[in-house]
Give the backbone structure.
Amino acid sequence: MVIREFFLAVAGLVDLAFSIYIIILVARAVISWVNPDPYSPVVRFLHRATDPVLFRIQRLIPLQFGGIDFTPLVLLLGLSFVQRIVHAALVSIAYNF
């Protein structure tokens, strides 16, 4: 019973972490539509949080067409997919105990 609750709690935390990162990614995409102040702490945080992952994806698959970068969309879809798989796996482990 305790192990089940532990895995359910971990599943909730992992789900929350993925959701927060997805919100950060969407915020980064939204601010890219305007000309934000590059010295703003919020803008710098969003870039520091997302640039490492986005640059890795851009190196693997160049997704810029007509001046529009589709890398955040690919990352968003990938994160949503992994989030669902990891959450379902942890919940399944929890109910198998």
